[in-house]
Amino acid sequence: MKVGIQKVHENEWLVQMGCAIMRLDRFSVELLSITLEHMLALAHGENHSTLKSYIKLGLKLKQLSPNDMQVVIREINNQDLVALLGLAKDQSLTNKVLENVGAILAKQIESDLLNNPLPEHEEAKRCVQRLVEKLFELDSNGKIEFIDEHTQYI
């Protein structure tokens, strides 16, 4: 079966699977990618972690400008953010988050990362999933923008 993805507009993608054609937003395309990775790994007898895929999507926080990072931080649950930071173990992401929160919240996040245990697998998955869903919701509503090496302005 053929699978094709074509960008139609900024937050609209045309996905073709066999004879079926669907219009999806960016988050749905990312979820489809996770699902396809999962199916491919299982077909080859390998393991695939949905949690790791959500963490990978959560790392998109690094693609935000400081202003957009502050918008996200105001919109998400701090425990979900701490869960992502603890699970991702990405110091550059942690530093970027701590630079974009107030001093009191930064100390609280640092304390939580040092002293609190990571949530169990299912709770961790729910925490990161909520954060990622909010991240893509803000992107689709035009409140934030992911900036990477392919971002171009006219």
What features would you highlight for this structure?
154 residues, mainly alpha, three-stranded antiparallel β-sheet, 7 helices, globular
Structural class: mainly alpha
Q: What strand line-up does the widest sheet have?
A: 1-2-3
Q: On the 0-100 scale, what is the average pLDDT?
A: 85
- N-to-C SSE series? EEEHHHHHHH
Separation of the first and last Cα atoms: 37 Å
What oligomeric state best describes the polypeptide chains here? Answer: single chain
Helix content: 55-70%
Query: Helix count, per DSSP?
Result: 7
Low-confidence stretches: none
Give a short account of the largest sheet.
3 strands, antiparallel
Percent range for β-strand residues? 5-15%
Would you report the number of β strands? Answer: 3
> What does the radius of gyration come to?
17 Å
Shape: globular
Compact overview of the structure:
With 154 residues, this protein is mainly α. It is 58% helix and 12% strand.
